[in-house]
Amino acid sequence: MQEMAMDATVHAALIGAEARESIARADAVASFEAIPSLDAHGEIARLILAEVSMLTRKYRCARRHDVPHIAELTGLLDLFWQEVGEFEAQQAKLPHQV
Description:
By secondary structure, the protein is mostly helical. Helices cover 80% and strands 0% of the residues. It has three helices and no strands. Helix 2 (42-59) crosses helix 3 (70-97). The longest helix has 32 residues, at 2-33. It is elongated, with a radius of gyration of 20 Å. The mean pLDDT is 80.
């Protein structure tokens, strides 16, 4: 019986942690969305992206609970590079369309 109570307590703590994490993520996204443009901060944004890239490479094979968010960061970096590639492809087409 005591084991079931512990399992329920652990489960509740995990759900609470997930909720707090979701709120923290939403707050972080809202903070960054409030910045009108990152153009003026391009160099620091590049440095942050480089560090995130290095972290995701380093911890890609780690167990998920040891280093949370690596899969999400990897996916976001992949999406970022996809968008960069699409933008560059569009820019390359523009001179030929004139």
